[in-house]
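Lecture notes, continued. The same structure-token format from the folding unit now serves as the input rather than the output. Read the line below as a description of shape only.
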């Protein structure tokens, strides 16, 4: 299966997850809005989710996937299975310790993780309780992330990409079934999170078994592969997860702001995460195992081509998404969330955060495309140095802008730090001779930028023309937003095609290309990269 098809597979399932996630968030906004219960639940969800993204999906996979792919390439599937089972034993042992310790220390941890809540004892105690309920999610979803890394290394992307849909379904079911009998709807949502971790873990166990990669549970031992993993995983945590670190810092600081700040950032981030997940995660997920195998096969030209095409795909999808979210932030937020406990004031506040987040959206996506260029080569030191610089910048900007712009300043700080991250990662790859922008990429970046600018004009004019519909009844708002989205899409695709930002035959070729590895086992390094 060619890289373009892998990206479509991961992106398609991720898009499905985001759609179900919107249904989930609409129900949450309707039920608990942006008040104290919402703030408490979003902190309770953010903590295990952050640790999962940073250490399990971020650091662990950044360290594990190249090692697993290398063993698969050099020594075959049984040697790779040994690497996976040893990693599983290490991860399970570490996670059990973390979860137990966190449950015991949770009240004290909350003074660090949400210090602003300490001034409201009821809100503080609720956050502690909900976080204790959600925290076991970290154990199961992290183990699921390892299983997903195994499947991705075998170029079997569908099961891991579909797993987040189960989380959203569990939350919806929990809110609708037990939300009225628990102490608060936040308790029902927290229970749904914990159950979702188990469901996703079982889902991926079955998926691994179906492709002949069932893993046995071993006693943890310091084998050479485990030592290598431990050596890499610490630096990879910062290198792969700088955006997550920055986002989490923003949540901590947001707890110092008035009620609702955490919730405004959450709803805005949820919309911003759609293109990040559909594009950035999809491209990065497909790129890392591919680069790892190409580099270990000494295919430098193929690796460079893969990197260029990945950036091309990412920019083609991320830039117009960012422009659309900036120009149409308020009507999008109004149509999706303004109902029940989520009022017009919340719409305006969350829309401001969305615009600030969207300014950094292309950067957040490109980081996920550039970072594999380091991790596939076993270089975790450089991303760590860059990460420390970006986190420091984000913290400094947070403290400076929160007094001027409130929660919007926190979102804007994250975007600025994201662009610095992109610049430093690209510069690092370029200086090492691992990345050169080829002529095709240069030409298409210019074309994509021009098409996005024209789309912005169309969206602005359409937004003015549809103002009454977008401010009317709920049904009229939905129709107005649909017209706005369709108009922007037509404008972008039409001008992008006219400017030469893509060629239809390349897209068709990328989606149709298949190889034997996609259906009969692991793919060999000769399968080739690229969109075209």
């Amino acid at each position: 299966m060619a890289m373009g098809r892998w990206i479509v597979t991961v992106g398609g399932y991720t898009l499905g997850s985001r759609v179900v996630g919107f249904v989930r968030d609409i129900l949450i906004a309707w039920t608990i809005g942006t008040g104290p219960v919402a703030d408490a639940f979003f902190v309770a969800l953010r903590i295990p989710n952050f640790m999962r993204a940073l250490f399990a999906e971020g650091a662990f996979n950044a360290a594990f996937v190249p090692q697993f792919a290398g063993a698969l390439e050099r020594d075959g599937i049984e040697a790779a299975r040994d690497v996976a089972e040893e990693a599983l034993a290490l991860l399970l042992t570490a996670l059990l310790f973390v979860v137990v310790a966190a449950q015991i220390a949770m009240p004290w941890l909350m003074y660090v993780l949400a210090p602003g809540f300490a001034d409201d004892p009821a809100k503080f105690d609720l956050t502690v309780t909900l976080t204790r309920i959600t925290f076991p999610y970290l154990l199961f979803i992290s183990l699921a992330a390892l299983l997903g890394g195994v499947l991705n290394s075998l170029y079997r992307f569908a099961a891991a990409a579909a797993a987040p849909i189960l989380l959203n379904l569990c939350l919806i079911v929990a809110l609708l079934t037990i939300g009225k009998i628990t102490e608060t709807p936040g308790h029902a949502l927290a229970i749904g999170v914990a159950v979702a971790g188990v469901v996703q873990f079982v889902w991926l166990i079955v998926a691994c078994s179906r492709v002949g990669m069932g893993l046995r549970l071993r006693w943890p031992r310091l084998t050479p592969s485990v030592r290598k993993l431990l050596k890499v995983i610490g630096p990879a945590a910062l290198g792969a997860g700088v955006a997550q670190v920055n986002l989490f810092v923003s949540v901590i600081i947001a707890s110092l702001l008035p009620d609702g700040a955490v919730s405004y950032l959450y709803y805005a981030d949820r919309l911003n995460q759609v293109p990040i997940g559909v594009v950035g995660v999809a491209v990065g997920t497909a790129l890392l195992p591919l680069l790892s195998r190409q580099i270990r096969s000494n295919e430098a030209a193929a690796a460079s081509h893969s990197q260029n095409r990945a950036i091309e795909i990412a920019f083609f999808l991320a830039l117009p998404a960012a422009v659309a979210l900036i120009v149409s932030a308020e009507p999008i937020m109004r149509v999706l969330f303004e109902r029940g406990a989520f009022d017009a004031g919340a719409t305006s506040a969350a829309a401001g955060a969305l615009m600030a987040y969207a300014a950094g959206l292309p950067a957040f996506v490109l980081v996920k495309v550039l970072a594999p260029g380091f991790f596939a080569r076993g270089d975790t030191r450089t991303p760590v140095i860059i990460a420390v610089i970006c986190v420091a910048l984000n913290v400094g900007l947070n403290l400076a802008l929160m007094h001027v712009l409130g929660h919007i300043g926190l979102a804007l700080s994250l975007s600025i730090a994201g662009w610095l991250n992109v610049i430093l990662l690209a510069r690092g790859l370029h200086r090492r001779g691992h990345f050169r922008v080829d002529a095709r990429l240069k030409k298409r970046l210019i074309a994509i930028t021009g098409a996005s600018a024209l789309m912005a004009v169309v969206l602005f004019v359409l937004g003015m023309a549809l103002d009454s519909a977008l401010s009317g009844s709920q049904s009229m708002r939905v129709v107005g937003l649909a017209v706005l989205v369709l108009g922007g899409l037509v404008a972008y695709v039409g001008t992008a095609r006219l400017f030469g930002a893509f060629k239809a035959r390349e897209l068709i070729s990328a989606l149709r290309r298949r190889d034997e590895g996609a259906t009969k086992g692991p793919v060999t390094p000769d399968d080739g990269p690229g969109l075209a």
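Point for the exam: Residues 513-532 have pLDDT under 50 and may be disordered.
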